[in-house]
Amino acid sequence: MDVGVNPFPITFAVHFLGITAIAMVLVWTIHYLGGLAWNSPDKSLLFNVHPVLMLIGLVVIGGEAIISYKSFPLEKEVKKVIHLVLHAIALVLGIVGIYAVFLFHNEKHIANLYSFHSWIGIAAIVLYGVQWIYGFVMFMYPGGDPALRRVSLPWHILFGLLVYMMVVAAAILGFLEKMTFLEESGLAKFGSEAYLVNFTSVVTVLFAALVVFCAITKPPAPAFDDYAPI
Q: What is this structure's pTM?
């Protein structure tokens, strides 16, 4: 259901929160956790690739893809391409991020897929891929029958938002899981790193909430009647 509020001012807040979340996760992984590296004797640097790519990819770029129809004053077909490309970039970064954590677990002889964070994360990226493929085939190429597209559109939007909420839930659970491990290893519960990660989670939730709100808003004016899928 569309809410009759102009979404364009909201998109600026979304962009700001997205940039803030990226900056915070980079400060955490580089300043507090020692940096990022694909090949290093210190395998924790390989793990650090995981939260960075998942947040930048599926959360932030994925959120920007969702609101791309509301963010850019362009032709609908151009916005459709932007929407598709941003989701593709998000999906690729998410896959690489998951591959990085699997490599880390295998290098450290840690079990894979044992936590709820990992379960919901795998489910989210699989469904994200299904959503992207369906959107490409139905709305881009070769394109479904117009009647079928009209029927599919509301469900495509709803499913997209549900998958995105799974992505954000997985991210928050990931922050919580990592902080639990760090605190068990001696990290101060009220130290600067703990506060940074907690506030990164808060910013991520606010970002996602505004993405969803922006996605369901629609100016009550004829000029903005033609909105495309999420």
A: 0.92
